[in-house]
Structures are given as C-alpha cells and as structure tokens.
Amino acid sequence: MTDRIISDVLRRLINDLSPEQCRGLETALYCVLDQYDISPKDTRVAIVEESWHEDLKRFIDRKRIAGKSEKTLERYRYILRRVLGYINKPISRITEGDLNDFLEKYKRFRQVSNSTLEGFRLCISSFFTWQHERGYIPRNPARGVDPIKCPKKLKKAYSDEDMEKLRRQCTQLRDMALIEFMYSTGVRISELCSLNRDNVRITNREIVIYGKGAKEREVYLTPISSMYLSAYLYQRDDDNPALFVSHKRPYKRLSPGGVRAMLSRIGRSAGVEKVHPHRFRTTLATNLIRKGMPVEEVKVLLGHEKIDTTLLYALVDKSKVKADLGRLLSA
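Structure (tokenized):
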C-alpha cells in the first residue's frame, strides 16, 4: 500500500520536479509513511439502524405517563439518541462492551467531566433496565457498566454577611421580595418562575409548589418574606397571574434567565461571588440542619426523593462540629 501511494504521488508530480527532487521526495515519503499502518478507505455504504427510534419513543412515552417533566424527557432523548445512534444496532444486540466503548470515546473526544458522564450512564441504565424489565430485551447490558466516580463538592451556602450584603443592594421592592422568597422557601428556579399569585396563601404564609414529576408539596414563608411579598403584590397594577414579573411593561413573567441576570447584577454590586438561584436552596437546607431540623423534614421541604440528595446540601460547619465535640465530651 505504501509503494502504491508513493508511486501515485510521484506520478502526479513527475512533470514539475527534477529527477533529483523526485528521488528526494521518494526517500522522504518512505521515511514518513513507514511509521503508519495504511489501509484503503472503506467506500461501502454503511447500513443505518433505525429500529431503536421506536424503542426510544416507547420509553419516553412511558416516562411521560409516569410524571417526568418535559425537561427531563428532553434530557433522556438527547442522551439516548447519541448513544443508540453511535452504536447503530438493534437494542437487543447491544452489549455492555458497546456501552462502555461509547462512554470511553465520549469522555475522550468531548472532554466532559465525570459528573456529566455519570449522568449519561444513569440515563443509559434507566433506558435498558426499563426495556429488560418489560421483556423487550433478553438481558440488560447496562448492568455491566460500572458507576463513574465523581468528586463530591461541598455546596457553599451564603453566609449571614453575604445575605445582608445582597439585601442592601436591592433597590427594587420586587428584588427584595424575590430574594427573601427564595431563601425562605428553597424553591428551584423552574418552580419559582412557574408560580402564580393564586398559589400563595399569604394569610397562612403557605405556597403550593408543583415540583419535579408533577409532585405537589407545600413550602412556607417567614414573616419577613411574607411582609415583602405582600408589599410587592400590593403595589403591582398589572393583571399578569405570574407571582414575579418584569419591572417594565408589558410586565412579562420572569424567566429563569431573567432571575439569574438579576441576581448576578446584585451580586456584583454587593461584592458577593457566585450569586445564583440554587445557592439560596443550599443555604436554606444548610441553615435548617445546622439549627437542628431533622434531615427527614428538610427532605420533605425541598421535595427530594432520596435523603442522600438532601445530605449533599448540608454544608457541615466545622465550628459547630468543634463546639458540639467540646460540649459532648465535657458533659
């Protein structure tokens, strides 16, 4: 194969090079190409497997019936299309080797983090486990794909000083109401932006939340949060049912992007780093656990399915550990 390539190159250049130049080029090509294994390109038309499209649709439909959000379903669809399209086999013939090969190559070529790759693995496992349990495939190839270790980073809560700095930078009543609301309730950004005024029972300081998987739960306002929210709603003169809206007409419902931009702006003015919605949720969980609320109750308040998820939000205060150790050992 090497000889044929060199001959083809020299034949194309024979009228442009002198005999000496041809010999020099020939020597150089032999030296370079000798380091490579060369084979002719396979020009056969690849057969594209399409049967998995129906399997994926069936899986997505069942997950929708089970109450998964459209955002979760889109994530399933995004990942599984890439996996199944890359492997290009009927799902009944896919092996654990195929799945491990995909994850290894995706990690190498896309340079994704282990946490992202673990998310792919969990989605793959959900898909093949569901297919196997319902008898669509004889064995579950995802069982042979090991979990991917991810560093568990402690989620940093806002300090009391951070919270006070943010409050002092709120020049609009809406912004103060929104910050106190997020800290009081610990709602997710998607939950916050979907709330309507009629979801809030100001008198009882209760809010009905429709969280992940269309699950309903109640969260609660502190007296301070209730005061600011009441004042904000009272001064509004629009008819938008949304709980939080833009400052200017036509007073549109606040979007997650709008909330993030607002918080980022306030954070920069306050000199507080990494101000984003989820940190209010982290701060609430951390402070409640620090002050003695049982983790099981925090789990219900945040709407978690597993208690392990709640524990990840609990940033352990080393000073509290030190104080508790001294108190217990001196008792």
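The two ends are 84 Å apart (CA to CA). The chain has a mean pLDDT of 85.
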